[in-house]
Inverse folding.
């Protein structure tokens, strides 16, 4: 036996063709996939805004009004329009994918996909309307 | 040979819960606070009313879960976007630590601010 063979903890490397970084720009379906994944950045941004909103609420009326003034700047309105577009796309793709992630059965009856999707949109509409009403009537 | 235990189902459940909560609640929040009020389409509630509603313990708990789970949702998706989109699979552990660690730090800061 050859004593010069060294043990290596690494797996031998296979030959693989390196994919370019922008492999996904060639097909619309791939662009849509990457865009859907990137909606998570808008989700993170939105909850950070919610935390900032809370922080000003807890600091005092001055800080709260300052935030409201800042949000009037065209830069932030533009950011929020893009973020809302992305978040709405997240909502749309999430609800439509729900039947593939959850199979709900009542006894032997499997709840149809359309009912699961519809239930999601109905819950979304009711919650959004309730929050909207609370906000504008406050 | 034993199969390597994976944490993925755990992170996937956080990702799923965050995805569902954010899909339900974030659009209306962003629309009202980020667009409709600043451009003057609606008039936001007074500071005192907002404080009374938002600082209710149940609303605070809901807000904490919304923020924390949404951050884990981001962490999971962004992690795989970096692996697949930018072909950074060789930085597997570093990216996982940065993404989930970021979500954990963000959740801790949120908890600290909310209470």
């Amino acid at each position: 036996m050859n004593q010069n063979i060294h043990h290596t903890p690494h797996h031998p490397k296979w030959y693989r063709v390196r994919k370019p970084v922008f492999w996904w720009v060639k097909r619309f379906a791939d662009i849509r996939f990457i865009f859907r994944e990137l909606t998570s950045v808008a989700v993170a941004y939105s909850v950070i805004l919610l935390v900032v909103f809370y922080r000003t609420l807890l600091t005092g009326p001055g800080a709260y009004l300052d935030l409201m003034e800042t949000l009037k700047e065209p830069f932030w309105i533009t950011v929020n329009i893009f973020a809302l577009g992305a978040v709405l796309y997240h909502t749309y793709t999430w609800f439509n994918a729900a039947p593939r992630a959850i199979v709900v059965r009542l006894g032997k009856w499997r709840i149809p996909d359309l009912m699961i999707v519809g239930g999601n949109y109905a819950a979304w509409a009711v919650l959004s309307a309730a929050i909207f009403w609370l906000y504008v009537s406050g | 040979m034993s199969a390597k235990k994976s944490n993925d189902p755990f992170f996937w459940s956080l990702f799923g819960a965050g995805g569902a909560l954010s899909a339900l609640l974030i659009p209306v929040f962003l629309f009202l606070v980020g667009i409709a009020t600043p451009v003057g389409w609606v008039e936001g509630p007074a500071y005192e009313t907002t404080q009374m509603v938002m600082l209710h313990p149940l609303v605070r708990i809901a807000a904490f879960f919304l923020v924390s789970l949404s951050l884990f949702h981001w962490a999971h998706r962004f992690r795989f976007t970096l692996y697949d989109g930018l072909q950074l699979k060789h930085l597997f552990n570093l990216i996982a630590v940065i993404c989930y660690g970021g979500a954990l730090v963000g959740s801790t800061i949120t908890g600290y601010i909310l209470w």
Q: What stands out?
A: Chain A is about 70% helix and 5% strand. The mean pLDDT of chain A is 90. The longest strand of chain A covers residues 105-106.
